[in-house]
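USER:
Class, as today's exercise, take the chain set out below, and explain how the chain folds.
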Amino acid sequence: MYELKTKENDRDVLEFIENVENPKKREDAYKLLDIFTDTTGYEAKMWGPSIIGFGSYHYKYESGHEGDAPLVGFSPRKANFSLYFATGDPEREKLLNQLGKHKSGKACVYINKLADVDVEIIKALIRQSVTFLQETYPKA
């Protein structure tokens, strides 16, 4: 059976951020921590070795695959920041068009630094993601 690698764990979020080598990236990581915490109202938790997640939801696909994931999150990677927002919501693209300099994949939005993007749009993406996921996957 498939075992999900990215699980919530007890690693220390602040210690993880302190180990980010680049000082500017570390500073932006602290700012993102505040933005995500203030916007979601959830405490930051480590998910897997490198994702800082906020809140959680339980998903179950038609295939039978199920698991838990953070509602939103981010990771300060070497090349850029990966921001994790909900996929599948048509409002996501509208907000991304207003975000600023970024790239996006299926699940991730990649930014180089906070100065490249509109923080208010990040907050809107966070709120939209949390609402969409809580409506799509209500707690049983």
Summary: The helical segments are 13-18, 23-40, 91-99, 119-136.
